[in-house]
């Protein structure tokens, strides 16, 4: 296999892994990776303005709104408008979600343990560094 073919195979494999990872994560954990990260952030940091949450998690405006609507419909979070400025929406966990979120995090932890079970610590470190390098290269890519 030549270098160009290998690069194409790696790209294709990354696409497959990404698709399968997302699908399996949602099936095993019961929530999408993005919604789980939103809940994790709120759990660790508390009440925050929706726009700030969107920026901190680097999720586009339409997606954050969609995720928050789903979390609100599931009674995980509540959103309230700022009294002095109706353009500001505050987001926080509902008081009844702590046990459910603890369960969600345990499922997430179990999922990660299962998908990374056959890797040594050293392999995981190298893999992490490789992914960071790839992400840096993606961000440097121009038209």
TrEMBL record:
The keyword Transcription applies. Keywords: DNA-binding, Transcription, Transcription regulation. SMART domains: HTH_MARR. Residues 7-136 form the HTH marR-type domain. It holds the Pfam family MarR. This is MarR family transcriptional regulator.
